[in-house]
Amino acid sequence: MKEPINVTVKIEVSGDCVYYRPVGKVTLEQGAELVDQAIVYARDRALLKLLFNCTELVGFPSPTLPQRYFIVRGWAQTAQGRVQVAMAARPEMIDPEKFGITVARNAGLTAEVYPTEPEAVAWLQSGSDK
Asked: Closest Cα to residue 119, out of 107, 128, 110?
C-alpha cells in the first residue's frame, strides 16, 4: 500500500510554461511521481515547458545512478517528446556528471537541472535544447 503524500503544490501557468512548486516531505518514489504528474499536466494542456522546483521537497536521499536511470526513463516516456523539463534541485541532489540529464536526452527528453529556480527558468526561456 502506498503512503499518502502530504505535499502542498503551487502551480502557475505563464504562456507555454507551467511552474510546478511542491513543498513537503516525500519518499523518492513519491517525489518522482510528482514530477511525472507535472509532466502529464503540461503535456495534456499542450504546455511545451515545465519548470519543476523540488528544492522544498525533503525526506529522501540523493538518488543512486540506477534510480536516476529508471526514474528519468519513465519521465521521458510520459513526456512523449512534447514537454521540455527544467528542474531546480538542491545542490546535493544534483549528480556532478548530470547522469540523469544524459539518460533523459538519450531517451528523447529535453531536460536540464540547476541549483536555483532562476537558472532553470533562464535555460527554459532560452529555447536551448542542450
From this structure: 128
Q: Do 75 and 112 meet the contact criterion of CB atoms below 8 Å apart?
A: no
Q: What is the mean pLDDT of each run of 10 residues along the chain (130 residues)?
A: 74 95 95 96 97 96 96 98 97 96 97 97 82
pLDDT of residue 80: 96
Is 109 within 8 Å of 129 (Cβ atoms)? Answer: no
What does the block give as the cell for 107?
Answer: 531517451
Distances (CA, A) of 63 to 50, 92, 126, 129, 130: 21, 10, 28, 24, 23
User: Which amino acid is present at 121?
Assistant: V
pTM, full prediction: 0.93
Nearest 10 degrees: Cα torsion 66, 110, 20, 18: -160
What's the CA dihedral at 69, 96, 112, 12 to 10 degrees?
Answer: 100
Instruction: State residue 3's pLDDT score.
Output: 58
